[in-house]
Amino acid sequence: MDKEEAPRTRAASWAPEAPRRESVGSRRPALVLAASLLLLAVLHATVSVETHPSHVIHVILRGLYLFPIIAAALWFGIAGGLLTAVGVSASYLVHILVSWRGQTMENVNQFAMIGVYLAVGGVSGLLVRAREREHAMRIAGERRAERTALIEGIAGLVAALGFRDDYTRQHCERVSQLAVAIGKRFDLSAERLETLRLAALTHDIGKIGVPDDILYKPEALSQAERARIERHPRIASEILSRIHGARNIAEIVLCHHECPDGSGYPRGLLAEQIPLEARILRVADVYAALTDTRVYRPGLGSDQALDLMADWGQGKLDEESLRALRSLGAADLTNQRPILESEANHARHER
Q1: pLDDT tens readout for residues 174-210
Q2: What is the CA 303 to chain-centroid distance, rounded?
Q3: Residues 74-109: tens digit of each pLDDT
Q4: 13-22 CB burial, b ≥16 within 10 A, e <16
Q5: Is the backbone peptide bond immediately before 298 cis, with ω within 30 degrees of 0?
Q6: Which end of the chain is more exposed for a tag (fewer CB within 10 A), N or C?
């Protein structure tokens, strides 16, 4: 089989991305810090040092310098805290040399305050860094717990599907392997590949809501029966959406029967309106259905299945996903599942 070059460009995520932090967001705190430091410096320079009340004012202003230092550490981390402390110390040192020259006892307190500024800047920055690390660890732990709960929920659904129809369960496992192999050709991230895998494992879970007399009917379906079986993506999506953290999985499953030309179901989406993961899933699903061996017919060979899928044209399958499928090696494409007696009459109505 001739291998076509697979798409290697990184696919854009269909989920909304978090907005990037703009430079304006850090410019405003910097302006606030600069304005507050300038105000304190001006007050320090203009207030007299001759009287006791004015001396009290200078002591208060000396303490007020701590606020911009702490604020800088909160906004910009340890570097911001230390740089602001250095700036405050330099400004205060000029004030000492100009306004308090020769006052040894007072100078001792003032120079000690410079040390306090530097210490507060460094310690505040370290505390902020520790808090951010703790917050990041807590968020990571919560995400791991959510992912574990999600996988356990998916595993429960797959097990339930297997108890009802082991063929469909094995078909979903086969589709998940193919979908992940295709997804790697798009350089999808590990997180997106895992989401794709879970979506593939559950893409037919909605058939639980389709009556057996329709799902296993050997004859052609009526229009009403066809409408019932075409509800299975929506049923699956509704089931999955009740699992915390499965929103993206539910959306992929909902769209896995959509076609680029808008002829798919349930929403009749067009081309790029269909999530990339759903387009990949559809290609993997169709290939697995064509190559699976059923009790009523042997599976097609890989070349036959790929040629048949190519004949459908770009309207029914995503071309890039199909090219990626064609580029896979024999190990990814070979179907080694055994024939199951429960497969009789199943999936005759797959598109």
Answers
A1: 999 999 999 999 999 999 999 999 999 999 988 888 8
A2: 36
A3: 888 888 888 888 888 888 787 777 767 767 666 777
A4: ebeeeeeeee
A5: no
A6: N
